Every structure is written in C-alpha cells, then in structure tokens.
C-alpha cells in the first residue's frame, strides 16, 4: 500500500515565521541599550517595534495556517514538504520533512490562534517589564518549536520540537531568574521532562530497530509487523514520554511549580499547547496504541488517577494560579482517559476546548494578578498578589474579567451549552460506551479485566467532574465575591483589565461558548453532529474502531450519561456555594495553619517532600559523600594529583643528598670510579 | 730505562691524586693537578721511545693546555678568594643539594 501525499513547499513558512520573530527580537534584546539593565521598563517606541514583530509573525503564521486549512479540508491526502535528507544510514533515512493532515492543522490552528491572542495579551501584561524583547523572543521560539512538533512528518523532527518546547518552557518559567525559586522551578521542569524524554527516545530506538523507519505514515502502515509484546513495550515507553510532557502521575510535579513564569506563559505553554503534546503524540500514533489494548488500559488508569489526584489537591490551594495548574493536570488526565479508551476524537476535542477555556481562565487570573499587584504597589503593601485570601469581591471592581471567568468556570465544570460540557460529556460517554461493550473491555491488563478498569475510570472521572465544579466555584467565590479582604486603601486602586488584555479574553470567551459545536452528540438536536469525528476519521478512525468496536449507545443511555454529568457538575457547584463561607475568610498573613487532611492536600500529598527525602536527598548525599568527598577529593585529588606530587618530592629530596657541595667528595667519587674502571680493564686483560 | 721512568711517573701521579684527595687549600690542589699532568707527560716521553715521536708532540699540547688552564684556574681562585676571603674548599659548599 503506497503512501500518497501532496507536496506543498509553503509548509516550512509556518514554523519559520515564529523563528524569524525569535531571531529579530532575540537580537534586539541583546543590544546593550535594549537589555534593560538601567531602566525599569522599555520605552514605548521600543515596545511597539518588539510587539509588532512578535505579534505580527504570529498573525502571519495564523493566516498561513488558515490557508493550509482550506487546502487540506477538501482532501484526505496529507500535504508534505521536505528540505532534503537529515540523516541516512543504509536503507534508513530521515528527512527534514513536515506534513499537514487533518490532525496537524487542528493543532496548528489552536497553537497559532490561541497563541496570537496570548501574544497580544502579553503586549499589555508585560508592558512594564524590562525584559520585554527577551520575553517575546522566547515566546516566539516556543511557538516555532511547537509548530515543528505538530507538523513533523517523522519522530526525529517531532523530537526536535518536543525538546525545543521544553527549552522554551524552561526559559520562560525562569524568565524572572533573579528570584532563585523561579530558576529552580525551571530546572525542575527540565529535569522531570528529561525522564519522559528517555521514554520517547527508547520508543524511537525500538521502532527504528524493528521497523527501520521513523516516519509516522510508514509506522501506521507497517506496525502489524511488530509482535504484541514489542508493541506493548514501545507504547509504554512512548506513554512515559507523554506522561512527562503532559504532566501525568507520577511526573506531574513540575507543572504546579511552572507557575513561577509570567501568567501568559502559563496560559500558552502550561495549559493550552505544550502540555497537550502527549495527547497529540498518542493520537498521531493511534494505530500503534490501538494495537496494544493493555497499554491503552494503563493510559486510562493513569489518566483517571491523575485527574482525581490533581482535582483533590486543587481543592485546597490558595494561590489562584496553583488552582488552575492542578486543574490543568486534572483535565489532562481526562484527555488521557479518552485517548487510552480509544476515543481519540474526544481526547482531541477536549484538548481544543480546554485550550479555549483554560487559556481564558489563566489570562483572567493574569488580569486579576496584574490589577492586584498594581493596587498593592500603589498602597505600598507587600502582600501576596496571587493569594485568593487577599482578594474577595473583585466582581465589583473587575466586572468584565469576572464575567468572562465565570463563563470559563461554567465551561470547565461542564454546564451546558458551553464547550467544556460537550467535550467532557464526549469523554464520559465514550468511556461508558466502551465499558459496556467493546474489544477493549474484553481485553485485560494482567489479571484485571478491561471492563473493570473502564468502569473504574468512569467512576473516577465523574468524581473528578464533581470536584472540578467545587474547586472552580471555590476559586470564583473567594476571588470575586464577598468583600475585599486586603483593605480599603488597596481596593480603591483596583481596576478592570484594560482593552489590550480584555480583547483576547472576549475572543476566548466567545470560543468557549461556541467551541462545543465542533463535535455535537447525536442525541442533542443543535446542529450538524460529530464534525470532529468525521474530520479526524482519516487519522484515527480505524484505530478507534479497533478498540471501541462498532456498537453504539442507545439514546436512553446517552441521555442518562448526560444527565449524570450535568447533575454532578451542578451538585458540585451547589456544594461550593452553600458550604464555603467567604465572610469568615482571613487574609493570607492572618490565616490559621492548615491541619489534618487540609494540610495534606494543600501540600500536594507531600509528594515534593517525599521526592526530596526519598530520591533527590539520597542522590545529593551520596554525591557529596561518595563522589565529591570520596572520589573527587579522596582518590583523584588526594591520591592521583597530590599523591604523585608528594612521591616526586620525597624521591628528589633523597636524591639531592648526593649533592653535598664539597669538592673533595666529588674528587673521591671520581677517583673511586677511575680505580673501578682501571680494575675492570685490568681484570679483563688478565683473563 | 722506560721501566724506571714509568715507575717515577706512577709515583708522581699517585702523589698528585693523594694531594687532591686530602688537601683542602685550592692552591695546593691546583699544584697537585699540575703534578698529575706532568706525571702523565713523563710517561708520554718515556713511551715515545716505543711508539714514535707522536708522544712528544702530545706533551707539547698538554703543556700548552696546562698553561691556559693554570691562567683560568688561578683567576677563579683569586675571585673565589675575593668573594669568600678564603680558599679553603671545605668552607665553600654553595652547590649542596
């Protein structure tokens, strides 16, 4: 079966545009006068140039993506473009090749679309920052690599993007590196991601060794040649990579810390795009994963556990960004449940809607932080601008931001007819459908039947939906309702988001409302149904059928599932409304210490402490005692370096005794030598 | 005749060696070295009876070199004396390791 493609040289333009922005802004930020060491913020003219480049290349990339969208929408044949061979060895060859099919273009539209909005928002958000040019350089760099990730036609090109976004993420988390905590958070993200990258590399090596190719199209076509245990191993390693990048148990620990970066960065990288790379990779290799039901069940299980785990932690966070961070981990868990269960469309659907409403939430939180920070600064206070206990009643001062964030909150909680409702329902009903009747339910993970895991995942996902509604309502109530807790002097300085910030929020709000129409369930008569299903059918349709079978839920069951989802969401919001008191809340500094289960949740089950005690602590101690003190100081420095010098010194001090400095002794030595020589000659002659 | 000459030469050489080994005064040492040279000259002369005139030519060279050596050596002894106010080699031990 030959692979047909259409050549389209235009493709390289899409990642090249942000890279161009990176080069221009990067060079500008290196100019001595632009480095911003002497001035607190960049002059307006300079900012205008940087913004024009930074946002301009994004809009251009968006336009090219839309043009490509119209090209691919009429055909199932992917567009490809190759810049020539990258590496070749015997029959193995990897090209600098990009391809665009229905899946890639969807990701590209999300990346360039949401990315453009966030770039625009950043112009306002970062206006007072001295590192304005550097910020936009990094942000453009990220988008360039992210586009390479989703457009790469083979695993090595994807891997460049994969590592590149990790680099950009590291640079942006530690953007304000003057504060050690930020730099440490960036390092943590980098190191934890490295564990996942090891898995992805292993998967690539094994694919290369056994299939002799790393092209996605060829892998999809030829994967049947692999034995079942081999496919299982490859998929497990690949999932390890996804778990690192997409913050799943147990590699999620870097994401909450990644909130140290500027808030638009959290919105773009750590909510909307980069962290969804794992979902993309699984859907891209749907054929492989569909051939490995046991790995798929593991993915379902890990996803469901992550979703619940992070949602419980989110219940007790006070930092507004931390709540959203754990919420992101939790929603990513949802997506993994979907792709694990073979509901690839539902996973991508939730990815897209989540990009909309989570970006909206993060940008809204950014507007709140921006306003709080400004107000606290005006009042000469040094309280925490991100802590919800220091907020309260913001709705009066920031009605536009509050309203938009409420829309996003309703969406993530799963209230119809917002985007989150449809995507979450798509996942829940897909899992229930597969649990009832599917080849996946018939397969098993070790001794555990697939049906049990799927029902368990469904239960956990419903429970998570309940918790999601609670923690999001909690966030909104504590931040936006009740009365302001940081005092009159601060409150009078609060202001709603200026239009530069509000514009992107409004667009994202609109997308959050209409995003669900991408994939309407058949039972609700709202318009054309299952658009995304049909759109992605050439990519993952057959693979999905392989795991899901061809059975369909009856209408009654679907109504029941929708009813459960909505009821759970409404119940969660109601619980949060009636159980949480805003009037007894005190500011961060006056708050009593957490106790019991609250303390455990507020500290994320003490996972970081556990890692520090159990893993990093012993490694550091062993490095210090064995490698540093023992090997480096002891053997290398003590024995080899100092020891050899000492040996030479002792030997030469012995040898220098021969030089007594008394001429008579030398004469004696000469005479003795002469006697010996003469004696030797004489004895020889006598013989 | 050669026998007696070589005998005297050996005695003179041994006296020179003993002098160099036992005395510490640089000038005496110097004279002993000259004695050794002349002892060798004597054996050259004596052996030229057996081996031809080249031995006598050699003696002329030795005497020339000895004269030059005496000039350099005495100059060194004088500057050593100026520096250390002594020519006792037992007190001059700058090269001790």
Structure in words:
Chain A has 687 residues and is mainly alpha-helical. In chain A, 71% of the residues lie in helices and 4% in strands. Chain A is built from 27 helices and five strands. In chain A, the strands form two sheets. A three-stranded mixed β-sheet of chain A has the order 1-2-3. In chain A, strands 4-5 form a two-stranded antiparallel ribbon. In chain A, α2 packs parallel to α4, α17 runs parallel beside α22 and α18 crosses α24. The longest helix of chain A is centred in the C-terminal third of the chain and has 49 residues. Chain A is globular and about 130 Å long. The mean pLDDT of chain A is 89. Chain B has three helices and no strands. In chain B, α1 packs antiparallel against α2. Chain B is mostly helical and 97 residues long. The model of chain B has no long low-confidence stretch (mean pLDDT 90).
Give a brief rundown of this model.
Chain A is mainly α and 687 residues long.
**What characteristic shape of chain A results from the CA principal axes?**
globular
Which bin fits the share of residues in helices of chain B?
Answer: over 70%
Helix run count of chain A: 27
Tell me the number of helical segments of chain B per DSSP (H or I, 4 or more residues long): 3
Poorly predicted ranges of chain B = none
The total of beta strands of chain A comes to 5
Low-confidence stretches of chain A: none
Q: How helical, in percent, are the residues of chain A?
A: over 70%
Q: Average the pLDDT over all residues of chain B and give the rounded result.
A: 90
* SS content category of chain B: mainly alpha
The biggest beta sheet of chain A, please? 3 strands, mixed
Tally of extended strands of chain B? 0
